[in-house]
Amino acid sequence: MIDTKPYQLKYSTYRSIVFNKLGRNSIQLFPFLLMWTLLFGWQMGRIIALYSVLALLIVGLSVLLWFSFKNLKPFLKKTQLRFDEESFFITIDENTSQWKYGQLRNVIVAEHYWLLYITINKYVYVSKDIFHSEADFIKFKSLIKG
Prior knowledge:
Elements: E1 2-3, E2 7-8, H1 11-44, H2 46-69, E3 78-83, E4 87-92, E5 95-100, E6 106-109, E7 113-117, E8 123-127, H3 134-144
Antiparallel strand pairs: 1-3, 2-3, 3-4, 4-5, 6-7, 7-8
Helix pairs in contact: 1-2
């Protein structure tokens, strides 16, 4: 079992992750808005349709932001990562969760961190500067295939 240094997600990093995810989610929102406008709004008038799309876009983005920043305390607590050949363990406030590498749906690689997606919406933040040696870093990177 390999232990890492404790780490903590910073608010600025969390904000950049949220806006990155928001950008990807809003791209998925545009086809819906376009179809809604073409099917329903164009018959009522172009100006009403345009206002409707803008209102939906603003409300949708506001709701996404509100949900993203609503309960941040669990995300910003000190975290410790432990891993071996079969699984990794995340400890936050003495509560430990275990996942096998095969459970990972996706790994997002950023410059200073990884986002390990357990489900479509649930991810684990792992900083890249928490390893005690370069060998530990390379081993974990190969295990998550990131």
